[in-house]
Amino acid sequence: MNHFELREGALWCEDTPLAEIARVVGTPAYVYSTATLQRHYRVFVEALGEHESLRGALVAFAVKANSNLSVLATLARAGAGADTVSEGEIRRALAARVAPERIVFSGVGKTYAEIAFALEVGVGQINVESEPELGAVASIARESGRCAPVAIRVNPDIAAGGHAKISTGAAESKFGVSRGEAERLYAAAAADPALKVRGIACHIGSQITDLAPMASAFAVMRELVLDLRRGGLPVERLDLGGGLGVPYFNQPDPPGPQAFAAVAAKAAEGLDVQAVFEPGRFIAANAGILLASVIHVHERPEGRRFLVLDAAMNDLIRPAMYDAWHDLRPVRSRQGPRRDYDVVGPVCETGDTFARARPLPPLESGDLVAFMSAGAYGAVMASEYNTRPLAPEVLVRGAEWALVRRRPTYEEILAREPAAPWL
Ligand code: LLP
After folding, report:
1. Closest residue (by CA) to atom 5 of ligand 1?
2. Would strands 58-62 and 29-33 be described as parallel, antiparallel, or unpaired?
Protein backbone atom coordinates (compact mmCIF):
# COMPACT_ATOMS: atom_id res chain seq x y z
CA MET A 1 0.00 0.00 0.00
CA ASN A 2 1.19 3.50 -0.73
CA HIS A 3 -0.06 7.05 -0.45
CA PHE A 4 -0.20 8.04 -4.13
CA GLU A 5 -3.88 8.14 -4.99
CA LEU A 6 -6.35 9.57 -7.45
CA ARG A 7 -8.62 12.26 -6.06
CA GLU A 8 -11.23 13.71 -8.35
CA GLY A 9 -9.30 12.63 -11.40
CA ALA A 10 -5.90 13.91 -10.27
CA LEU A 11 -2.97 12.13 -8.66
CA TRP A 12 -2.02 13.18 -5.14
CA CYS A 13 0.73 12.26 -2.75
CA GLU A 14 -0.88 12.09 0.69
CA ASP A 15 -2.79 15.41 0.96
CA THR A 16 -0.70 17.21 -1.64
CA PRO A 17 -1.59 17.41 -5.33
CA LEU A 18 1.39 16.38 -7.47
CA ALA A 19 0.53 19.16 -9.91
CA GLU A 20 1.27 21.71 -7.18
CA ILE A 21 4.75 20.27 -6.63
CA ALA A 22 5.44 20.24 -10.37
CA ARG A 23 4.32 23.85 -10.65
CA VAL A 24 6.80 24.97 -8.01
CA VAL A 25 9.86 22.75 -8.54
CA GLY A 26 9.39 21.87 -12.20
CA THR A 27 9.96 18.47 -13.79
CA PRO A 28 11.52 15.98 -13.79
CA ALA A 29 11.34 15.63 -10.00
CA TYR A 30 11.25 12.81 -7.49
CA VAL A 31 8.48 12.89 -4.89
CA TYR A 32 8.48 10.73 -1.74
CA SER A 33 5.71 10.03 0.75
CA THR A 34 6.59 10.17 4.44
CA ALA A 35 3.53 8.08 5.38
CA THR A 36 4.49 5.33 2.95
CA LEU A 37 8.10 5.22 4.14
CA GLN A 38 6.93 5.00 7.74
CA ARG A 39 4.30 2.43 6.93
CA HIS A 40 6.66 0.13 5.07
CA TYR A 41 9.21 0.29 7.86
CA ARG A 42 6.50 -0.39 10.42
CA VAL A 43 4.91 -3.36 8.63
CA PHE A 44 8.34 -4.90 8.17
CA VAL A 45 9.19 -4.54 11.86
CA GLU A 46 5.74 -5.75 12.92
CA ALA A 47 6.04 -8.83 10.73
CA LEU A 48 9.36 -9.67 12.38
CA GLY A 49 7.89 -8.98 15.80
CA GLU A 50 5.40 -11.80 15.36
CA HIS A 51 8.26 -14.25 15.84
CA GLU A 52 10.09 -14.79 19.07
CA SER A 53 13.37 -15.47 17.26
CA LEU A 54 13.25 -12.15 15.38
CA ARG A 55 12.19 -9.83 18.16
CA GLY A 56 14.68 -7.05 18.73
CA ALA A 57 16.05 -7.44 15.20
CA LEU A 58 18.05 -4.59 13.73
CA VAL A 59 16.35 -3.34 10.57
CA ALA A 60 19.09 -1.47 8.74
CA PHE A 61 17.65 0.37 5.75
CA ALA A 62 19.86 -0.16 2.68
CA VAL A 63 20.94 3.41 2.08
CA LYS A 64 21.89 2.61 -1.51
CA ALA A 65 18.20 2.34 -2.36
CA ASN A 66 17.45 5.93 -1.42
CA SER A 67 20.09 8.02 0.28
CA ASN A 68 18.29 11.34 0.51
CA LEU A 69 19.04 12.79 3.95
CA SER A 70 15.42 13.58 4.72
CA VAL A 71 14.33 10.09 3.70
CA LEU A 72 17.04 8.63 5.94
CA ALA A 73 16.08 10.92 8.80
CA THR A 74 12.42 9.91 8.42
CA LEU A 75 13.38 6.25 8.71
CA ALA A 76 15.92 6.87 11.49
CA ARG A 77 13.21 8.58 13.53
CA ALA A 78 10.97 5.59 12.96
CA GLY A 79 13.76 3.46 14.45
CA ALA A 80 15.69 2.19 11.44
CA GLY A 81 19.40 1.54 11.36
CA ALA A 82 21.38 1.85 8.13
CA ASP A 83 23.12 -0.58 5.84
CA THR A 84 25.87 1.32 4.05
CA VAL A 85 28.47 0.55 1.39
CA SER A 86 30.76 3.57 1.34
CA GLU A 87 32.13 6.33 3.53
CA GLY A 88 29.67 8.64 1.81
CA GLU A 89 26.74 6.50 2.86
CA ILE A 90 28.05 6.21 6.42
CA ARG A 91 28.32 9.99 6.52
CA ARG A 92 24.76 10.29 5.25
CA ALA A 93 23.48 7.86 7.89
CA LEU A 94 25.27 9.77 10.64
CA ALA A 95 23.98 13.09 9.31
CA ALA A 96 20.46 11.63 9.43
CA ARG A 97 21.13 10.74 13.08
CA VAL A 98 21.36 7.02 12.81
CA ALA A 99 23.28 5.87 15.89
CA PRO A 100 26.70 4.49 14.80
CA GLU A 101 25.98 1.21 16.58
CA ARG A 102 22.99 0.76 14.23
CA ILE A 103 25.11 1.17 11.09
CA VAL A 104 26.23 -1.86 9.09
CA PHE A 105 29.10 -1.36 6.64
CA SER A 106 28.93 -3.77 3.69
CA GLY A 107 30.63 -3.92 0.29
CA VAL A 108 33.26 -5.94 -1.56
CA GLY A 109 35.83 -3.18 -1.93
CA LYS A 110 36.15 -1.07 1.18
CA THR A 111 39.23 1.13 1.01
CA TYR A 112 41.73 1.65 3.81
CA ALA A 113 40.37 5.15 4.39
CA GLU A 114 36.79 3.92 4.50
CA ILE A 115 37.56 1.17 7.01
CA ALA A 116 39.50 3.61 9.18
CA PHE A 117 36.60 6.05 9.04
CA ALA A 118 34.07 3.34 9.93
CA LEU A 119 36.14 2.34 12.97
CA GLU A 120 36.65 5.91 14.04
CA VAL A 121 32.95 6.70 14.07
CA GLY A 122 32.13 3.36 15.69
CA VAL A 123 29.86 1.54 13.25
CA GLY A 124 28.25 -1.51 14.80
CA GLN A 125 29.09 -4.13 12.19
CA ILE A 126 31.53 -4.36 9.31
CA ASN A 127 30.52 -7.10 6.90
CA VAL A 128 33.80 -8.56 5.75
CA GLU A 129 33.62 -10.00 2.26
CA SER A 130 37.04 -11.62 1.72
CA GLU A 131 40.21 -12.83 3.41
CA PRO A 132 42.32 -9.84 2.33
CA GLU A 133 39.64 -7.55 3.67
CA LEU A 134 39.64 -9.31 7.02
CA GLY A 135 43.39 -8.77 7.19
CA ALA A 136 42.99 -5.11 6.30
CA VAL A 137 40.30 -4.52 8.92
CA ALA A 138 42.40 -6.23 11.59
CA SER A 139 45.53 -4.24 10.80
CA ILE A 140 43.67 -0.91 10.63
CA ALA A 141 42.02 -1.74 13.95
CA ARG A 142 45.40 -2.55 15.51
CA GLU A 143 46.97 0.65 14.16
CA SER A 144 44.17 2.76 15.58
CA GLY A 145 43.99 0.86 18.86
CA ARG A 146 40.39 -0.11 18.28
CA CYS A 147 38.55 -3.40 18.22
CA ALA A 148 36.64 -3.87 14.95
CA PRO A 149 33.15 -5.41 15.12
CA VAL A 150 32.93 -7.73 12.11
CA ALA A 151 30.56 -10.19 10.52
CA ILE A 152 31.65 -12.56 7.78
CA ARG A 153 29.61 -12.29 4.60
CA VAL A 154 28.86 -15.73 3.32
CA ASN A 155 28.06 -16.52 -0.25
CA PRO A 156 25.57 -19.38 0.11
CA ASP A 157 25.83 -20.24 -3.60
CA ILE A 158 22.14 -19.64 -4.17
CA ALA A 159 21.22 -17.10 -6.81
CA ALA A 160 17.99 -15.15 -6.65
CA GLY A 161 16.55 -11.88 -7.76
CA GLY A 162 14.57 -10.08 -10.39
CA HIS A 163 17.40 -9.77 -12.92
CA ALA A 164 20.84 -11.30 -13.48
CA LYS A 165 22.46 -7.93 -12.80
CA ILE A 166 21.02 -7.77 -9.29
CA SER A 167 21.58 -11.38 -8.24
CA THR A 168 24.45 -11.66 -5.80
CA GLY A 169 24.32 -15.05 -4.11
CA ALA A 170 25.79 -17.37 -6.76
CA ALA A 171 29.24 -18.87 -6.22
CA GLU A 172 30.63 -17.05 -9.26
CA SER A 173 29.48 -13.62 -8.06
CA LYS A 174 31.98 -11.31 -6.40
CA PHE A 175 30.14 -11.14 -3.08
CA GLY A 176 31.22 -12.83 0.13
CA VAL A 177 33.20 -15.96 0.88
CA SER A 178 32.25 -19.61 0.47
CA ARG A 179 30.87 -21.48 3.42
CA GLY A 180 34.08 -23.40 3.99
CA GLU A 181 36.16 -20.25 3.82
CA ALA A 182 33.72 -18.56 6.18
CA GLU A 183 34.40 -21.12 8.90
CA ARG A 184 38.14 -20.64 8.56
CA LEU A 185 37.90 -16.83 8.52
CA TYR A 186 35.48 -16.83 11.41
CA ALA A 187 37.87 -18.83 13.57
CA ALA A 188 40.74 -16.54 12.58
CA ALA A 189 38.67 -13.46 13.40
CA ALA A 190 37.60 -14.88 16.75
CA ALA A 191 41.24 -15.48 17.66
CA ASP A 192 42.35 -11.95 16.77
CA PRO A 193 42.14 -9.48 19.67
CA ALA A 194 41.81 -6.59 17.20
CA LEU A 195 38.52 -8.05 15.99
CA LYS A 196 35.23 -8.71 17.67
CA VAL A 197 33.49 -11.19 15.44
CA ARG A 198 29.78 -10.69 15.87
CA GLY A 199 28.25 -13.10 13.40
CA ILE A 200 27.61 -14.00 9.81
CA ALA A 201 25.82 -12.18 7.00
CA CYS A 202 24.34 -12.95 3.61
CA HIS A 203 22.43 -11.19 0.86
CA ILE A 204 21.54 -13.22 -2.21
CA GLY A 205 19.88 -10.74 -4.52
CA SER A 206 17.29 -8.05 -4.97
CA GLN A 207 13.67 -7.94 -6.13
CA ILE A 208 13.22 -11.51 -4.94
CA THR A 209 9.67 -12.67 -5.50
CA ASP A 210 10.13 -16.33 -4.66
CA LEU A 211 10.92 -17.17 -1.06
CA ALA A 212 12.27 -20.66 -1.83
CA PRO A 213 15.85 -19.54 -2.61
CA MET A 214 15.78 -17.32 0.45
CA ALA A 215 14.69 -20.24 2.60
CA SER A 216 17.55 -22.34 1.18
CA ALA A 217 20.10 -19.60 1.77
CA PHE A 218 18.87 -18.94 5.29
CA ALA A 219 19.05 -22.68 6.03
CA VAL A 220 22.72 -22.63 4.98
CA MET A 221 23.25 -19.72 7.37
CA ARG A 222 21.52 -21.54 10.21
CA GLU A 223 23.67 -24.60 9.69
CA LEU A 224 26.75 -22.44 9.70
CA VAL A 225 25.79 -20.81 13.01
CA LEU A 226 25.35 -24.27 14.52
CA ASP A 227 28.65 -25.50 13.08
CA LEU A 228 30.55 -22.47 14.32
CA ARG A 229 29.11 -22.92 17.78
CA ARG A 230 29.92 -26.60 17.75
CA GLY A 231 33.49 -25.46 17.10
CA GLY A 232 33.29 -23.34 20.25
CA LEU A 233 32.93 -20.01 18.45
CA PRO A 234 30.47 -17.39 19.67
CA VAL A 235 27.85 -16.15 17.19
CA GLU A 236 25.72 -13.31 18.41
CA ARG A 237 24.31 -11.92 15.14
CA LEU A 238 22.68 -13.36 12.05
CA ASP A 239 22.38 -10.84 9.21
CA LEU A 240 20.00 -12.10 6.53
CA GLY A 241 20.38 -9.13 4.17
CA GLY A 242 17.67 -7.46 2.10
CA GLY A 243 16.17 -8.44 -1.20
CA LEU A 244 12.44 -8.73 -0.62
CA GLY A 245 10.66 -7.82 -3.86
CA VAL A 246 7.89 -5.29 -4.33
CA PRO A 247 4.96 -5.15 -6.75
CA TYR A 248 5.82 -3.22 -9.89
CA PHE A 249 2.24 -3.83 -11.09
CA ASN A 250 3.16 -5.90 -14.16
CA GLN A 251 3.62 -9.07 -12.13
CA PRO A 252 1.66 -11.02 -9.56
CA ASP A 253 2.16 -9.58 -6.09
CA PRO A 254 5.35 -10.84 -4.45
CA PRO A 255 5.24 -12.44 -1.02
CA GLY A 256 4.68 -9.90 1.74
CA PRO A 257 6.71 -9.22 4.85
CA GLN A 258 4.76 -11.76 6.93
CA ALA A 259 5.70 -14.61 4.61
CA PHE A 260 9.28 -13.35 4.49
CA ALA A 261 9.43 -13.07 8.28
CA ALA A 262 8.13 -16.62 8.66
CA VAL A 263 10.99 -17.90 6.48
CA ALA A 264 13.57 -15.87 8.38
CA ALA A 265 12.13 -16.93 11.74
CA LYS A 266 12.50 -20.57 10.82
CA ALA A 267 16.20 -20.02 10.21
CA ALA A 268 16.73 -18.11 13.46
CA GLU A 269 14.49 -20.30 15.62
CA GLY A 270 16.09 -21.22 18.91
CA LEU A 271 19.49 -19.80 17.97
CA ASP A 272 19.25 -16.88 20.36
CA VAL A 273 20.91 -14.50 17.92
CA GLN A 274 20.13 -10.89 17.14
CA ALA A 275 18.75 -10.95 13.61
CA VAL A 276 19.74 -8.16 11.23
CA PHE A 277 17.93 -7.23 8.02
CA GLU A 278 18.95 -4.84 5.25
CA PRO A 279 15.79 -4.01 3.29
CA GLY A 280 16.01 -1.23 0.75
CA ARG A 281 13.53 -1.62 -2.06
CA PHE A 282 10.76 -2.95 0.17
CA ILE A 283 10.76 0.25 2.17
CA ALA A 284 11.46 2.87 -0.46
CA ALA A 285 10.33 1.69 -3.91
CA ASN A 286 6.63 2.35 -3.62
CA ALA A 287 7.18 5.40 -1.43
CA GLY A 288 8.42 7.43 -4.38
CA ILE A 289 7.57 8.49 -7.89
CA LEU A 290 9.32 10.34 -10.67
CA LEU A 291 7.22 13.20 -11.97
CA ALA A 292 7.76 14.16 -15.61
CA SER A 293 6.14 16.31 -18.27
CA VAL A 294 5.19 15.36 -21.78
CA ILE A 295 7.31 17.38 -24.20
CA HIS A 296 5.33 16.17 -27.19
CA VAL A 297 3.68 13.21 -28.81
CA HIS A 298 5.33 12.15 -32.01
CA GLU A 299 3.26 9.92 -34.26
CA ARG A 300 5.13 8.16 -37.05
CA PRO A 301 3.15 7.58 -40.24
CA GLU A 302 4.05 3.87 -40.10
CA GLY A 303 2.29 3.60 -36.77
CA ARG A 304 4.61 4.04 -33.78
CA ARG A 305 3.54 6.68 -31.33
CA PHE A 306 6.29 8.17 -29.16
CA LEU A 307 5.56 9.87 -25.88
CA VAL A 308 8.59 12.12 -25.44
CA LEU A 309 9.10 13.11 -21.79
CA ASP A 310 11.40 15.56 -20.07
CA ALA A 311 12.65 12.70 -17.86
CA ALA A 312 15.26 10.38 -19.31
CA MET A 313 17.45 7.37 -18.60
CA ASN A 314 19.83 9.62 -16.67
CA ASP A 315 16.99 10.31 -14.18
CA LEU A 316 15.65 6.75 -13.90
CA ILE A 317 17.96 4.14 -15.37
CA ARG A 318 16.17 0.99 -14.26
CA PRO A 319 14.24 0.36 -17.51
CA ALA A 320 17.41 0.83 -19.62
CA MET A 321 19.61 -1.17 -17.28
CA TYR A 322 17.41 -4.00 -16.07
CA ASP A 323 14.46 -3.90 -18.49
CA ALA A 324 12.50 -2.83 -15.44
CA TRP A 325 8.81 -2.11 -15.75
CA HIS A 326 7.51 1.03 -14.03
CA ASP A 327 3.84 1.84 -14.07
CA LEU A 328 3.22 5.20 -15.75
CA ARG A 329 0.21 7.21 -14.71
CA PRO A 330 -1.11 10.53 -15.98
CA VAL A 331 -1.30 13.04 -13.12
CA ARG A 332 -4.65 14.18 -14.53
CA SER A 333 -6.50 11.72 -16.70
CA ARG A 334 -8.09 12.78 -19.96
CA GLN A 335 -11.14 10.97 -21.28
CA GLY A 336 -10.62 8.79 -24.31
CA PRO A 337 -9.52 5.37 -25.44
CA ARG A 338 -6.15 3.99 -24.39
CA ARG A 339 -3.58 3.75 -27.12
CA ASP A 340 -0.11 2.31 -27.26
CA TYR A 341 2.83 4.64 -26.69
CA ASP A 342 6.57 4.12 -26.79
CA VAL A 343 7.64 6.16 -23.78
CA VAL A 344 11.05 7.78 -24.30
CA GLY A 345 13.29 10.51 -22.93
CA PRO A 346 15.38 13.13 -24.72
CA VAL A 347 18.78 11.42 -24.30
CA CYS A 348 20.49 10.52 -27.54
CA GLU A 349 20.39 6.75 -27.16
CA THR A 350 17.86 4.15 -28.19
CA GLY A 351 18.24 2.73 -24.69
CA ASP A 352 16.55 5.86 -23.40
CA THR A 353 13.23 4.06 -23.61
CA PHE A 354 11.07 3.65 -20.54
CA ALA A 355 8.41 1.46 -22.11
CA ARG A 356 7.36 0.04 -25.48
CA ALA A 357 3.77 -0.12 -26.68
CA ARG A 358 2.46 0.92 -23.27
CA PRO A 359 -1.33 1.40 -23.34
CA LEU A 360 -2.10 4.86 -21.94
CA PRO A 361 -5.02 7.27 -21.99
CA PRO A 362 -4.74 10.30 -24.30
CA LEU A 363 -1.77 12.56 -23.46
CA GLU A 364 -0.74 15.91 -24.81
CA SER A 365 2.22 18.23 -24.67
CA GLY A 366 2.51 19.75 -21.17
CA ASP A 367 0.68 16.93 -19.39
CA LEU A 368 2.23 15.58 -16.22
CA VAL A 369 2.92 11.90 -15.75
CA ALA A 370 4.28 9.87 -12.86
CA PHE A 371 6.56 6.84 -12.96
CA MET A 372 5.44 4.77 -10.02
CA SER A 373 7.61 2.67 -7.69
CA ALA A 374 10.59 4.93 -8.33
CA GLY A 375 11.53 5.58 -4.70
CA ALA A 376 14.25 2.90 -4.66
CA TYR A 377 17.23 2.89 -7.01
CA GLY A 378 15.82 5.97 -8.75
CA ALA A 379 17.41 9.27 -7.75
CA VAL A 380 20.45 7.46 -6.30
CA MET A 381 21.34 6.01 -9.69
CA ALA A 382 20.79 9.24 -11.62
CA SER A 383 23.58 10.92 -13.53
CA GLU A 384 24.08 14.16 -15.38
CA TYR A 385 24.50 12.40 -18.72
CA ASN A 386 23.86 14.84 -21.56
CA THR A 387 24.46 17.58 -18.95
CA ARG A 388 20.97 17.18 -17.66
CA PRO A 389 20.81 18.54 -14.10
CA LEU A 390 20.01 15.94 -11.41
CA ALA A 391 16.28 15.89 -10.75
CA PRO A 392 15.30 17.51 -7.46
CA GLU A 393 13.74 15.50 -4.64
CA VAL A 394 10.65 16.44 -2.66
CA LEU A 395 9.37 14.91 0.57
CA VAL A 396 5.66 15.13 1.28
CA ARG A 397 4.10 14.88 4.72
CA GLY A 398 0.34 15.23 4.60
CA ALA A 399 -0.53 18.59 3.10
CA GLU A 400 2.99 19.95 3.52
CA TRP A 401 6.00 19.26 1.39
CA ALA A 402 9.63 20.27 1.24
CA LEU A 403 12.29 20.41 -1.40
CA VAL A 404 14.86 18.02 0.07
CA ARG A 405 17.35 18.19 -2.76
CA ARG A 406 17.58 21.18 -5.07
CA ARG A 407 18.01 20.91 -8.79
CA PRO A 408 21.53 22.21 -9.47
CA THR A 409 21.79 25.28 -11.64
CA TYR A 410 23.81 25.14 -14.85
CA GLU A 411 26.23 27.57 -13.24
CA GLU A 412 26.83 25.10 -10.40
CA ILE A 413 27.34 22.25 -12.80
CA LEU A 414 29.89 24.15 -14.89
CA ALA A 415 31.62 25.62 -11.84
CA ARG A 416 32.64 22.15 -10.67
CA GLU A 417 35.04 21.94 -13.58
CA PRO A 418 37.93 24.34 -13.22
CA ALA A 419 39.70 24.89 -16.53
CA ALA A 420 43.11 23.31 -16.94
CA PRO A 421 45.61 26.15 -16.42
CA TRP A 422 47.02 25.82 -19.95
CA LEU A 423 43.65 26.42 -21.58
N1 LLP B 1 22.20 -5.53 1.42
C2 LLP B 1 23.15 -5.68 0.48
C3 LLP B 1 24.47 -6.22 0.87
C4 LLP B 1 22.88 -5.34 -0.85
O5 LLP B 1 23.80 -5.50 -1.78
C6 LLP B 1 21.60 -4.82 -1.18
C7 LLP B 1 21.30 -4.42 -2.55
C8 LLP B 1 20.66 -4.66 -0.16
C9 LLP B 1 21.00 -5.04 1.14
C10 LLP B 1 19.30 -4.10 -0.40
O11 LLP B 1 18.55 -4.92 -1.24
P12 LLP B 1 16.99 -4.63 -1.50
O13 LLP B 1 16.26 -4.92 -0.21
O14 LLP B 1 16.85 -3.22 -1.91
O15 LLP B 1 16.63 -5.58 -2.58
N16 LLP B 1 19.95 -1.18 -8.61
C17 LLP B 1 19.21 -2.40 -8.61
C18 LLP B 1 19.22 -3.06 -7.26
C19 LLP B 1 20.61 -3.35 -6.76
C20 LLP B 1 20.62 -3.96 -5.39
C21 LLP B 1 21.99 -4.03 -4.86
N22 LLP B 1 22.11 -4.53 -3.52
C23 LLP B 1 17.79 -2.11 -9.08
O24 LLP B 1 17.50 -0.97 -9.42
O25 LLP B 1 16.97 -3.01 -9.15
Report:
1. 203
2. unpaired
